Amino acid sequence: MQDLLLSLLFVGIVWLVWRAFTKRPPLHAPASEPQPAENKEAHHLRNTLQFAKDQHSALSKMRLEQAVWQHQFGAAQVAELDQLSGQEFEEFLAGLFRAQGYAAELTPTSGDYGADLILSKDGRRIAVQAKRYVGSVGVQAVQEALSGQAYYQCHTAWVISTGSFTNNAVELAKKSGVKMIGRSEIGKLMTQHTAKTKK
Length: 199
What we know:
The protein has six helices and seven strands. By secondary structure, it is of the alpha/beta class. β2 and β3 form a beta hairpin. The longest helix has 34 residues, at 40-73.
């Protein structure tokens, strides 16, 4: 439905721009007559068309990213996450949260200031520290998430890990408002995603 509406909007804008330009004087006007400036309606239509093209391009890019993610990780089980590299785990999380309606942006692989991923939804930004661990994640991960929250000017911070969390990490997270998302919560998100794609 969204594709149909976007296509209709795009076609309508193209038609309006075409109509505006067909009313313009011929391009080969006599040299003695000054060329009229572009009227406001045509200028507005040109800007609207460019906006529609940009939106269409962004939506197409987003769909392609999600299709690639679905092909690579869509059928993965939680246990398979242990085989991923740290970078692959970050890419997995970005796609998983995009499927949940978040905008997701990966930060640079080096010098990330404590956040591997920035999520956005409903005007709120979340700094995510991703830890693809088999063992326990400690206090340092919470500190890194808080650092990323400050640097990227986010509203909150999360630590997401395939491993468990030490008691000290859980205590610091509670006191500092950092959300801890572990293996079982990731599994629930993956199950929800699988159920959505089968509908």
